[in-house]
Queue: 2 jobs
Job 1
Amino acid sequence: MSATARKTALNAQDIRALKGERPIVSLTAYTTPMARLMDEHCDFVLVGDSVGMVLHGLSSTLGVTMEMMILHGAAVSRGLSHAMMVIDMPFGSYEESPQQAFRNAARLMAETGAAAVKLEGGVEMGETIRFLVKRGIPVMAHIGLTPQAINTLGGYKVQGRAEGAAPLIADAHAVTEAGAFAVVLEKVPATLADQVTSEITIPTIGIGASAGCDGQVLVVDDMLGFFTSFKPKFVKRYAELGPAAEEAIADYAAEVRARTFPAPEHTFADHAPKKD
Ligand code: KIV
């Protein structure tokens, strides 16, 4: 698809300039219809590697591939005309070297129309972020709980408590100095999120952080209540679409079995009326 055909009203510089002006609104999206629904309401839409867990049934984000991100990124791109699109770099696509990161980031942007990439890591990713930004790739950083590192973090734990605070603050400064235009703070204590937000010059985007962050992001399927058995503390459910969908499916199944669906209004006559 032609990436240039898509016109987004917002870009990385616009998002960065929102710090101190007004809260930045973001959600994840993985499909065209969902992207369409959020386009007018979000400043940026994140094609998160959470797609692997949300839509593909993976148990972590580690199995997400470049091909999966490109497929979903291109779909989301077709649903956006106002919000900026940011796409996650999947595990293993950027950690090896700045050159590897550039190759894969350029491919993600060229083949999806994304206006920026997001990658996980702080101090250790500084050199890579600088390399990408200098070569025309806007980077959103992601620190605190970085789900691609659950095996070294020991699970989906809150990050930055007690002696963990200083390294997290160092990460925030490192990604800022490297040229990231914004940074996601995931699952960090609220006071620490506030401190980081006041210390750095780029917007902080909270998820399980604090209302004092410069913006917020949530996984859309979580906030719409698609999953009944999964409810992290930081997710507010704005709807309960999972149970509503299941009820509708059960009604349909019952009506098919009772032969009450399709009803006459859903079937076609022998002779064509003016409009079918
Ligand atoms: O993959 C994802 O969805 C994310 C966020 C929710 C921050 O990285």
Job 2
Amino acid sequence: MRFDVFTIFPSMFTGFLNESILKRAQQAGLIQIALHDIRAWATDKHRTVDDTPYGGGPGMVMMAPPIVHAVESVLGDALATTPIVILSPSGELFTQQVARELVQYPRLALICGRYEGIDDRVRIILQARELSIGDYVLTGGELAAAVVIDVVSRLVPGVIDPESLAEESHSSGLLEYPQYTRPPIFRGLAVPEILLSGHHAKIAEWRRMMALCRTKARRPELLERASLTPRDHQLLQQCPPDPFAHLGSIVKETTERGSSATD
Ligand code: ADE
């Protein structure tokens, strides 16, 4: 899959996208990330890409011509078939479901806004979809575009282990169950015994219950949309009374931050 990113700050992307899983995915040719500096399509000698808003008000608005020309010239024949996304706090919410839609395409164009936003004619002319990564305001769309690239890239076949994709938070519409690894006791907190039992069916049921209970406590609106079995409804009745308490036994009351010198 190829990502074309349109930004006035291409260097913002280099560190983040060139490490770890995304670095390996690029080296393996599974994904390709092309960064395009919108200023290269500005026409005046100062390379201006923004101007004051019509109607007045604070700040600056990104001008339509440089962005439209940049996207048209980079995409060329692929313009008609490539989804074009504008990152903006006023967009529809970017979710795992949207990522699953976007990964169906071989190419994705991402336009990063700065200042008070982008001239709305860009959205109309390019038939772009506006996406927000959450209900907060970033200083620009670059971080949001990096989030979209990260989330979509994980879904490209071969980028990560397919088993982790199936198990993880949000893929089932629920939050993920809690995980533990060695040591078995840390600062007096023991790993829930069931996980050490080797009883796979019981472990699976405990994990399902914890996923349900966490979702109920933290994101109840997700539970309403999830497809639940009659057994899930029974498991929900068994949620621990304090959903934020430790789930294993407490061997020794030394759990406060910084309280134990010996662990
Ligand atoms: N630009 C500024 N804030 C944003 C957000 N929450 N999502 C996407 N783009 C943005």
